[in-house]
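Risk register update: the risk of archive-format incompatibility is retired. Evidence:
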Amino acid sequence: PPDSSLHGPVLERLLEFGVTTILSPGARPGAGAEVRDRLRAGEIRGPRMLTAGALLDVTPEGREYGSWATQTPTDSVIRAEIRHQDSLGVDFIKLYAGLTPDLVAAGVDEATRLGLPAIGHLETTPWAEAARAGISMLVHSGWSTPMEEIIDLADPDSATEEEWYRAYASAPSSPRFAALVQSLIDNDVVVVPTLAITQAGAVGRDAELLPAFRPDLAPERDVPGWWGDDWESRHPHYGDTSEEEGRLLEDVYFPGVLAIHRAFFRRGVKLGVGTDVGNAWMTPGVSFHYELGLYQDAGIPPLQILAMATRNGAEALGLADSVGTIAVGMRADLVVLGGDPTVDIRNSTRIGRVFLGGVEVGGR
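Archived output:
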């Protein structure tokens, strides 16, 4: 929302943790563009921002969204909504979970015609199909996505829980996974894994992980509205899960998520960094650095993680000519650290000073 008294603490926390450019991948009609423009004008203090508009979706019966989602059940409706969002000045189009392949293709086509990149949080449409349709960015690889696409099981619906999770964890050795990787590479798709929310939702059956996300640093007035009920005792995404399935999620599934992203990296898939701030436990700024640590846990070298967080992100946002690298003529968005992140990426949290466009804006 455009009320700076609400989003102001979030933006301040991001700056404090050295986050100088952000993408808001979904906003109420007009709100994201208004906040972006007020940031540009200096009326609000915070990172540089790009934004999408309301999510485009076809929701199943019984599920309701607020004004941050728009129902687009036909080709003509989704194209008209994208034209409307373009008139509001959005930077991206966000295609959501319930869209079928034909609607994703129509949405990408209309967005591309208008010069707008399309982001996908997809559940109904396989990623490979979205890649072939020309989508620019796919998010949440490991959580709330069509995971059967990479599982080498003849009939996933008839598999036991253990068979399913073990097949998922071994996906990098499957032909289906190889085909997806090739499609992502061939179509120049950026994948933003959001491993922190994946881990929190998969293994957050209690609050054991919660201190690592520093809820004490979450903007106080945002916590009740964003994080739902009982977030202090378990993560709200952790479902009605049996003890046995909980064991599989912790011992098989999440290690499999890390292995999949190690394989994405080693095979050349473009990876970016994002954390889905607004979901429970995703404290602004803190969760970004936590996310980087999970990439290191997955086996990605620290120097390459830094590239993901800087240069790759700038390229994905179409800003590589001004931010993301240190060179003559680039904007001086700089973070001064008290430790070497190329030795251990978790040294990225040792923040001394933060500069935005050459102006010192904060530090820890």
